[in-house]
Amino acid sequence: xxxxxxxxxxxxxxxxxGKLPAGIRVMNPFQNNKEIVGIMTAFYKKFYDDHQPRQIIxxxxxxxxxxxxxxxxxxxxxxxxxxxxEIKGFKTHEPSSVFIYDLIKAxxxxxxFYKKFYxxxxxPLGFTAVKGEKEVNYNYYDSAALTKAATPLILSAMATQLxxxxxxxxxxxxxxxxxxxxxxxxxxQHHFFEHMVPLEHPRFVMQYKSKTKxxxxxxxxxxxxxxxxx
Length: 230
Description:
By secondary structure, the protein is an alpha/beta fold. It has 11 helices and 7 strands.
C-alpha cells in the first residue's frame, strides 16, 4: 500500500464508539458527506501516492470549515483550488489553512512539503457543541469528560499511523498549550517519539498575531531545519 492508500483506508474506517458528554456531537466528515471521501482521496493520491517516509505534524481535531469540509487537515476549499483540486457546489474559508499554505509556499511548495510531512490530528474526528442556535467547534480537550471518551480513539489512531513509514524520532505539535500538554503526557507514557516540538497553532497566529505571521512561519521553518536530518 502507498502512503496515500494507508491514509484513505484509515480515514474511511474511522468511527467513534465512546459516550459523548451531553450537548456534544461527533463530526465524522467521511461518514457525513460522501463527496468529502472523493475530495480527500484525490488530494492524497496527488501528493502521497508513494512509499516515502514522512515526519508527522499534529493538529488538534478536525474543524467544520477545514478538514470537516475537505477531509484534509488545514485545507479549506479555497486552498484545495490552489493545488488543482477545485471543489464545486460549496466554498469554505478557514484562517488556519491560510497560515499553513503560506508556510507551505515558504517551504518550497506543496510537492516538496507533502513529500516530507504528513499533517494529521491528535484526535482524528472532530466535535461540535450547540450554543443557542449555533453549532461551534469543540476540541477534544475542552472538557475532561470528552478527553476521557476520546482517548481510546486517539490511542488507536496513533497506533495505526505509527505503523506507517513515519519518523519516530521527531513530531511537531500545533498548539503550545493544552494540545501540547496532552500529547506530551501520552508520549511520556507510551514513548511514541524521541522528540516533540510544540509550535504555535495556526488559528492562534491568525486570530491574535496576524501582523507578525511571518515570524511564526520562520519559527516553523527553523524547527523543520533543525530536525531535517532525522
